[in-house]
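Figure 3 (text version): structure tokens given as input.
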């Protein structure tokens, strides 16, 4: 009986830059060998900056979403707080900064919900998801995005309906909301043992 080869991982033979517009975008062409030994000479990778998404939950239990008009998500979308990770920042530092800039809020209770590759074949940046609890408003938003034109506060049941509907136009925002809701639900259902 023949056994299939054991995958040993991908091997990059060559990399060349096809297009570059720093710091926003680099398109690379890689020559790779797949785990099963096939050589592919034109595997394209899209390098984008990593970013954070945050679902804020206020002290009163409501969740804060941003109303936006993004260039490729028109006419309107609801979104989580988020933005690029600046050089030298950790994902949590970026999340704290973005929360303050876009909402004027701060939090002392953070939960990281994971980090993800947007496209496992092409890259397209890394995404770090967070839920921030007990958020309180310190000031007016300092630096809202140019596409931002308001915020809404919703209950947990309203948030579930929004996430399951078509008002969220980004898979990263929807994933942040759904992972936060699952994390909060599972945390509340854990019964301490004695």
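Below: residues designed for each position.
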């Amino acid at each position: 009986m023949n056994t299939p080869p054991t995958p040993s991982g991908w091997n990059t033979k060559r990399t060349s830059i096809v297009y570059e517009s720093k710091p926003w975008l680099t398109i690379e062409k890689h020559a790779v060998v797949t785990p099963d030994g096939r050589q592919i000479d034109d595997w394209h990778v899209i390098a984008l900056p990593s970013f954070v998404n945050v679902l804020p939950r206020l002290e009163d239990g409501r969740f804060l979403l941003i109303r936006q008009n993004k260039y490729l998500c028109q006419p309107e979308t609801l979104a989580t707080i988020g933005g690029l990770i600046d050089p030298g920042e950790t994902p949590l530092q970026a999340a704290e900064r973005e929360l303050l800039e876009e909402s004027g809020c701060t939090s002392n209770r953070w939960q990281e919900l994971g980090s993800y590759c947007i496209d496992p074949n092409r890259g397209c940046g890394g995404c770090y998801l967070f839920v921030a609890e007990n958020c309180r408003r310190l000031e007016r938003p300092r630096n809202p995005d140019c596409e931002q034109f308001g915020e809404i506060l919703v209950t947990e049941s309203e948030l579930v309906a929004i996430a399951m509907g078509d008002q969220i136009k980004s898979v990263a925002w929807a994933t942040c909301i759904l992972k936060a809701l699952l994390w909060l639900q599972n945390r509340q259902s854990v019964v301490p043992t004695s």
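Residues 1-7 have pLDDT under 50 and may be disordered.
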